[in-house]
Automatic annotation (TrEMBL), chain A:
Domain Thioredoxin positions: 40-205
One Pfam family named in its UniProt record: SCO1-SenC
Keyword flag Transmembrane: yes
Transmembrane segments: 7-26
Cysteines engaged in disulfide bonds, as pairs: C78-C82
UniProt xrefs under SUPFAM superfamilies: Thioredoxin-like
InterPro entries named in the record: SCO1/SenC, Thioredoxin-like_sf, Thioredoxin_domain
Family, per entry: Belongs to the SCO1/2 family.
Protein's recorded name: Electron transport protein SCO1/SenC
UniProtKB/TrEMBL annotation, chain B:
Organism: Pacificitalea manganoxidans
Keyword Signal: yes
Record keywords: Plasmid, Signal
Signal peptide limits: 1-25
InterPro entries, sorted: LpqE-like, Lxx211020-like, PCuAC_sf
Protein name as annotated: Copper chaperone PCu(A)C
Superkingdom in the source lineage: Bacteria
Presence of the UniProt keyword Signal in the record: yes
Amino acid sequence: MRRRAILGYGAAGVGAVALMLFVGWWQVDGPGGPEPIGQRPVALTAMDFRLTDHEGNAVGPETLIGRPTMAFFGFTYCPDVCPTTLSDISGWLDDLGDGADEMNVAFITVDPERDTVETMAEYVGYFHPAIRGWTGPEEQIARVADGFRATYERVPTESGDYTMNHTASVFLFAASGRFVTMIDYHEPREFAVPKIRRALEEEMEGAT
Amino acid sequence: MKKHTLTGTLAALLTLGGLSVPALAGPEDVVVVNAWSRASIGMNRPGAAYMTIRNTGDEPVTLIGLATPLAMMPKIHETKTNAEGVSSMSPAGEIAIAPGESVALEPGGLHAMLMRLQEPMTEGDTFPLTLLFDDGGEVTVEVPILGIAARGPED
Ligand SMILES: [Cu+2]
């Protein structure tokens, strides 16, 4: 009796360990695992989403193809990282001079609930005129983030509001739509601007 | 050379109308320099303020909180960016500053988060921000409000 009970526990134990291993695999590597973040964005030509820019125009990945692109995810209620990044981008564009006119620059909201077309229009107006604000329905925002392999998450704050955690890097694409590289948050201007120049030059080569 | 630099700094202090005048009230050993913030669009969004807090004394000091008539809920927050490039923000808790050390509140790191604004932050204005220390000491600094696209205290 006693022995049987022990055996029973033993079997249950083995079963439990196997189950734990399986659950662990499922969550980490298996189909239940999170999207591997840090993965390269797909080419713009392979993306599919419909958004609206801050002037009310319908936009999609095709809007960005034909000229090199700088794109960034954020939200206008962000007090720290987003205004800083938009100021950084404005500074890079000033450094590029005429090159800035050759680029698409899209600021894509991850908070479409609060960032309406009108809100985006007012907000981007404070930064470099090349910066366009893009918003759209929740599921389209999810699609664009998926193509970029960007992540975002809504987090409640102690003031009773919410904030958004989100990928803060700036994405660079060539005119062909090919992903070139990323500019990390906090990356000094002396590294950022040459990266952008490289994306611009790649376009020239592609065109000739 | 050194003298020149000092004179330049002094001139900058004067022209910026008290922007960086060391705040010496309260714990005499705490000096706050380069305080700045960005203008807000209305009152719905939280604001953020930045500065460098120096402990010039021989004893450690611990910053435990903030107070300002501008915001009902000012708090020290920290923005972090992880290896995947995802940034997030959370309350920073208490901040100990060792003797002779400084703590920088700067974009993308520690910041004074100004939640529930009581009035819009208007470029060109200033507001008082009081730093509260664990020994009951307080230091009040007048924070200038720069443009929304400002990148640092000199913008
Ligand atoms: Cu914050």
